[in-house]
Design a protein that fits this description.
This protein is of the alpha+beta class and 92 residues long. The chain is built from 4 helices and 2 strands.
């Protein structure tokens, strides 16, 4: 799974820059051998630059949406459906 992220490192860096992300990391099963694309989730830890609450919400949901479409759109269909439903519930 780490290859999925490594292969898109430059794209992720551009996305992070656009949404004021200072650091983006992964933890959990995605970095272990027991990761399964069809059933596992992706656990991210994100540090944003200082911003207003409105900007933070926009950045958080924008980042989530961009990661879904650029990184896991075709590689993790089950997770994509869950995130799309979450985004839709927030009107994103």
């Amino acid at each position: 799974m780490v290859d999925l992220i490594e292969d898109r490192k430059e794209e992720l860096a551009r996305i992070c820059l656009r949404f004021g992300v200072l650091s983006l990391g992964l933890f959990g099963s995605v970095i272990r051998e027991d990761f399964h694309a069809e059933t596992s989730d992706l656990d991210f830890v994100v540090e944003f630059a200082p911003m207003s609450p409105d900007e933070h919400a926009h950045s958080y949901f924008g980042l989530l949406k961009e990661i879904v479409w650029s990184v896991i759109h075709t590689d993790l269909p089950a997770l994509r459906r869950d995130v799309e439903a979450l985004l839709a519930s927030f009107g994103v």
